[in-house]
Amino acid sequence: MKIKVKNKFRAFVSIIVVCLLIYSVYALVVRKGTDKDNPDTVPENSSAGDQLNPESGEDTKDDSNPSNETGSGESSENKADDSNNDSNDQEKDNESANVRLTEEELAKYKPNEAGKIMVVMFHNFIDTYKSGDKEYTTTFNDFRNLLQELYDRGYRLISLSDYINNNINVEAGCVPMVFTFDDGTAGQFNLVEENGKLVANRQSAVGVMEEFNKTHPDFGLKGTFFVNLGLKTFDGEGTLEERLKYLIDRGFEIGNHTLEHVKLSEITSAEKIQQQIGGNQKKMSELVPGYIMDTFSLPYGLPSENLVNYVIEGEFEGIKYKNRAIMEVGWDPNPSPVNKKFNPLSIHRVRASGIEPVQADLAWWLSNLKRENEYVSDGNPNTVTVPKDKEEEIDKDKLNGKELIVY
Ligand SMILES: [Zn+2]
C-alpha cells in the first residue's frame, strides 16, 4: 500500500512539474507577443542600448535623425514625440561636446569663430522690378536664386537670438548668416487660404523660404521680422494675430520697429519714444500674450544723444520694454558674438541686393568678403575654435563657459 501511495504521489508531482513547464513556455511566448505588439517598448529598449554602447548609438542616431528633423515638431501631430526628440538633441549636444576636430579636419574646414557674420536686411519683395528699385527691393525669383547661391557657398541661417546669445550651431566649415526683414510688408509674408487652411503665400519671402526648406532643410528656416503694429502688417488674409502666430509657431522671431515707423531722429521727447516702442510691445502683448519683442530695428537712425537710452529701455502705460539688440541700417558684416568688437546695441546690417548693384550690398560683400575673415564654424556649439593669429580678437569674458580652442 505504502509503495502504491508513493508512486501515486510521484505521478502527481510529475504532472505538476510538467504543467509548470508548459505554463512557463506559454508565459514566455505571450510576453514576447505583447512586446512586439507595443511599438513604444521597441525604441525605448533600443535607445537604452544606445546609451550602453555610445559607438553603435551614434550610427543609429545618424540614421534616425534626418527623419526626425524633417518633421521636427512643426505639426502638432509630432508633439507626442517631442520629448523623444529633445532627449535625442540633448544626447547629440553631449556627444558633440566631446567631439574634437582632428588636425586633418581643422586643415580642411579652417574654423574661425572670431570672424564676421552677415546680418542681412530685407524690405520689399515683388514679382518684377520697376525702374529705380535698388537694394530695398528684391524679386521672388532673385530671392529664390539667392537662397540657392547662399546654400551652395556654405551659408546657413541662424536666428538673431542665437547670434546674440552665441548659441551658434551649424555644421563644421559652414558660415552662419542672419536674415532680418523690416516694415512687415506683404511681400515678406502674407497668408492665403488653401483647402480651408491659412498658409504662407508661395509668392512671399516666407513662402519661398518654406519651399526651399523642403529640399534643403539644413539651410535653416529662420529670420526676424521688425514690425510696426500700428500700421498695415503682412497685409493679406487672416487676422493680424493669425499672421504673427503663424510666424512665431514656425520659429521666426518678431522684433520692434516702433508702432508707426516714426523718425526717431526727429523726436524730441522721451514720452513719444516710449509711446512708439512701448506702444508697439503693448499691441503685441494684446495680440500674442506673453510674446516679448526684445530686439529693435532703428527706423531712420537714432534720436539725439540724451534720448538714446529710451530706445534701449522704457515704459509705456505699464508695459516695460528692454531691447537686448539694436539693428542699424548698415553697410558691413558684423563681428562674431565672442569678438572684442561685438556690441549687440549696434549691429550693422548688410543691405539685400536689388536690380542695380549698390556699393556694399549683399552681392558686393559676397564677392568681396574673404572667407578667412568670416565666421567659419567648428561644428560644435560648445567650443569656440580660432586659428592662432585670431586668438587676440576673442573677448574671453564673452565665452560664457564655452571652451576656447586655438590651433
Ligand atoms: Zn523701416
Q: Could you state the order of secondary-structure elements as H and E?
A: HHHHHEEEHEHEEEHEHEHEHEEEEHEE
**Amino-to-carboxy terminus distance:** 94 Å
How many structural domains can be distinguished in the coordinates? Answer: 1
Report the bound ligands by name, code or SMILES: zinc ion
CATH architecture: Alpha-Beta Barrel
Query: CATH homologous superfamily - what is it?
Result: Glycoside hydrolase/deacetylase
Low-confidence sequence ranges:
24-88, 90-94
CATH class: Alpha Beta
Largest sheet: 6 strands, parallel
Q: What does the average pLDDT come to?
A: 82
Notable traits:
TIM Barrel, 15% strand, alpha/beta, 6-stranded parallel beta sheet, binds zinc ion, two-stranded parallel sheet, 16 strands, 407 residues, 39% helix
Describe the fold and architecture.
The chain is of the alpha/beta class. The chain has a single domain (104-406), classed as Glycoside hydrolase/deacetylase (TIM Barrel). Helix content is 39%, strand content 15%. Strands 1, 4, 5, 8, 9 and 14 form a 6-stranded parallel beta sheet that branches. A two-stranded parallel ribbon has the order 2-3. α7 links the parallel β4 (155-157) and β5. α2 (41-52) packs across α3 and α6 (140-152) runs parallel beside α8. The protein is globular. Residues 24-88 and 90-94 have low confidence and may be disordered. The protein binds zinc ion. Residues 182-183, 257, 261, 299 line the site of zinc ion.
